[in-house]
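Go through this chain for my students:
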Amino acid sequence: LKTQISYILGRDFGATGYLNFQNWSDKNRYCRYYLNYKEKDFLKKLNILEFESKNRIILEHKKKFLGDLPVWLSINLLTLGDIVDIYTLMNQKYRREIAANHELDLDQFETWIKNIRLVRNLSAHNSNIIDVEFTTKPKIKEQKLLDKLFFYDEAKNLTTNKIALTIVIMEFIVFKINPDFPGAGINKALKRICKNRTDEEAQKLGFKNFKTIDELTI
């Protein structure tokens, strides 16, 4: 995501054009005052991160060149939360381009990365993600992904709101980015949780059955 955002902004606005949010933000989605606020907040955060950075490449760049960091260096200073914020602020055509690179439509991709950000933050603060119940679920349209999920109300076509949602979308995205990803870490962890290898255990996590967990490649 960092690579694709920095590529697009560098391609269309040069090395430092990203610093002017009016260049690339979605002005149909956000008002000018909100974008100005987000730009000032971003620049303040970037200055702090740049000052505190111990990244060798950034330090060498600052020795050789004056002025602002180019987008391909500054983007690397940002957290996942920062990157998702940048993505949601981008003009729709750029958001659609990035989503298409993952073979997803715009609406799906945005809900997916927001869900992954939420689970990442919960994990980082030692929260219980095994029993999490999402109030806002990521949008899933691919039938092969829906087939992995537990439908608690088949008549209304309602799927689970548990951690299985995050895992199946992560599996999809990871292998779109890197088809050779070795995987298996999450698969092993889920098997340790489902000690008796039963469908009931798997369904408590939001999966269709235990076979689904057994066949996960992530």
